[in-house]
Amino acid sequence: MIKQHFEASAGYRKWTLGLLAVGGLILVLGFIFLGLSKDEHSQTRFWAVLLQNSTYFLLVVNASMFFICVTCLALGGWQMAFRRVPEAISTLVPVFSGIALVIFLYLIFGPNHHIYHWTDKGHIEHDSILKGKSGFLNPWFFLIWSIVAMGMWSWAGAKMRQLSSEADERPMENDEAKNFHRRNTVWAAIFTVAFGLTVGSTIPWFWLMSIDAHWYSTMYSWYTFASTFVSGMALIALFVVYLKNRDYLEWVNQEHLQDLGKFMFAFTIFWTYLWYSQFMLIWYANIPEETIYFKVRMHGPYRAIFFLNLILNFVLPFLLLMTRGSKRNYTVMTFLAILIVFGHWLDFYQMVMPGALGEHYSLGWFEFGILALYAGLIMHFVGKALAKKPLVSVNHPLLKESIIHHA
Amino acid sequence: MSLTKYESQLREPLVDGKKTYHDVTVDIVHTIEAKPTRLWYIGFYVAVALLLFGVFSVYMEVVYGIGQWNVNRTIGWGWDITNFVWWVGIGHAGTLISAILLLFRQGWRTGVNRAAEAMTIFAVMCAGQFPIFHMGRVWMAFFTMPYPNTRGPLWPNFNSPLMWDVFAISTYFTVSLLFWYSGLIPDLATVRDRAKTKLRKYLYGIAAFGWTGSTKHWQRHESLSLVLAGLSTPLVLSVHTIVSFDFATSVVPGWHTTIFPPYFVAGAIFSGFAMVQTLMLIMRKVMGLQDYITLGHIEAMNKVIVLTGSIVGCAYLTELFMAWYSMVPYEQAAFFKFRIAGPYGWSYWLMMTCNVISPQLFWFRKLRRNIAFTFIMSIVVNIGMWFERFVIIVTSLYRDYLPSSWSPYYRPTIWEVGFYLGTFGLFFTCFFLFAKYFPVIAIAEIKAVLKTSGESYKDEMAPLEVMSTEKFAHEMLHHDEHHREGDVHVVHHDKH
Lengths: 407, 496
What we know:
Chain A is mostly helical and 407 residues long. Chain A has helices at 10-35, 40-73, 84-90, 92-109, 121-125, 128-133, 139-169, 174-207, 220-245, 254-285, 288-299, 303-320, 324-327, 330-357, 365-388, 399-403. Chain A has 16 helices and no strands. Chain B has helices at residues 21-33, 38-64, 79-90, 93-103, 109-134, 161-194, 198-207, 215-248, 260-286, 295-325, 329-337, 345-357, 365-368, 371-397, 414-437, 443-453, 455-466, 469-476. At the A-B interface, helix 6, helix 8, helix 9, helix 10 and helix 16 of A face helix 8, helix 9, helix 10, helix 17 and helix 18 of B.
């Protein structure tokens, strides 16, 4: 008999605890040796790594709710058999929002101005460009808009999850199903519009682009979205494969996995498309104010990461996900999902570090330790959320489409 | 009983009116077999007249030179390039419907793909005219072709996005044409097989390439479709991406912005769908195709319009914000002094209203399903998208870095307008001929979805909708892995 409720196995709990323990220890050690260090670069490293991880993973888990909402608006049915997985992942949005908020509070009001130069009042006085931007780049606007954004994601997301629980209760008659779908659509639309106004535009400008405070690119937010959406799909696939291997999700089969693989493949190409468009246009026009961004990344100390970014996030997934067989293979999909989540983590690394640390960056125990901490947090909270509800909302009016699904 | 596909009752039928296969054929083919109506003749002659006026306008420009237009050294690109980008944009919907909506398994595409693809091809044909005649010395147009030549070291400039455009658009045109035509073959064979006159049988026989409908033919047809769909998908993105490069690679304020490629693609799909709506709403009424192009189809396209319109709106606001945020005085001036204000300010606000504000009304289901409103909106969007290109081109050019070359107010001459009208003539001449001589809806594809999405079949499935999910899964799910994609649409009635 297929189990309807997820119970974290001993192995799952062991890994979760292990990652949390290692990550937590490294966070403490990092705080002591880097955060409290007299050396400014060490301090900055501590906060920059936290910023990179907290923004990246928040946007990645939020991509799950975006996926739910857009498939709802498009009247998609195929995802119903595993929809509880992105739902569970999206419960992390308020958690990661809280963590990110603490870090932002320190960064915009604290004494360290190496990451967000525009928070340095003394510096702005002599910098006419930053002075001009201060109508946007100011601590309070940053803070309030971040809270509003996080609030909207969490609130509309919670509504969507709450609606989804209704489909656990009892079968719906035709009109009831229509009404249920309409209410879903309304909330999905609210989330999607909020998402466009935040992730699709303002939020990446605040959180990430303002690290290179003088530099600007209209593509930046869509690029950030592409990066986190493809990783979000990979994270969903990762949990689906895990649950399937543990004999959960009876009605999910290779067809669904292949479709998830198609999303990973398509948005890998989409990310590359945006990457190329941004890079090529800046390279071609060759305006120094713009090329400076790529100069430090491509010709400076980040050269290896610059190219690794393209290999991990384009070349490998593009080639390996191309065939039908690979998208239906549990092992290949697991490998690629991990690769993509890690690859875009590295993408965020190269978005954050050059502006914050310049040549003084390092990629060592602390960076990977915080990555482990976040992996542990995700495992812990997703495991908890999965155990809370049945793994399939059995009376959802579109579920039957997902049961009879062919990729 | 076991199923290979199930459709929820939440989805409305894609084909209304309990059709049989024969009904489908008759409904779609009967206009080809009948004499054209008077309305058709009127429309066709108006289109031909416009075309002739266009030919004369082009004649004036070719014979007397580019001075027949009001473009000048400052506004080097005026109506012509605006029209070019506008038509290319319209030419996006067809291939999006046939390739990308196919990948997303949007069943409703079958109702509109044929006509949308035809529209795409005609729109690209119109678009291509503008850069060619903009060259001035049009007899030199072959210089754009790279081939070993006698002009010494004189080769096309491969570093120029204008050059990339030549390849992008000709590739797009070729693949779209092949895609459209290969889809037509089975349907042309249907017309041939029903033909009463010798001439019709002969001509449709040639056009159908000897199609017999054998399994082998279908198999090859399906593989070809798959290959062409695979080729078209990147092409949908690449064409308008490269058109956007024409602007964005430059250092002209208002043009050089990194968001241009995806934003142009979204805008192209936006205007393409608007044009599909304009044509389909007329066509379904005049040709009696309401059962195939249903309110559901119209609503689905309106959803695409509100989505892409909002993406475009997001891009407009991003550009505006970034112009300020960049603290580059030229960018700020281009947007805030010469674009949203200044002598051309009206065109910016017209664009904003038509493309961003008014399509938001499509958030309301009632309006999405209102035919008259949809028709008006489709025209509004097309006007807005024309002005988008006008705004980008003219308002960035008329005030450049050097105030001494600032241009007076730019108005097109009659021959510039005539050229544009002429492309409407070309477009509608082609479209009228298409509507008369070709099956305007993909007959074979409609038949393929009839069994899962037709009205009568949906009624048959109603008992399954109320069955408990466990029972449904137990009874309907194939537990073997033998079936493949080919039989997705087939409903098996085997006995347990």
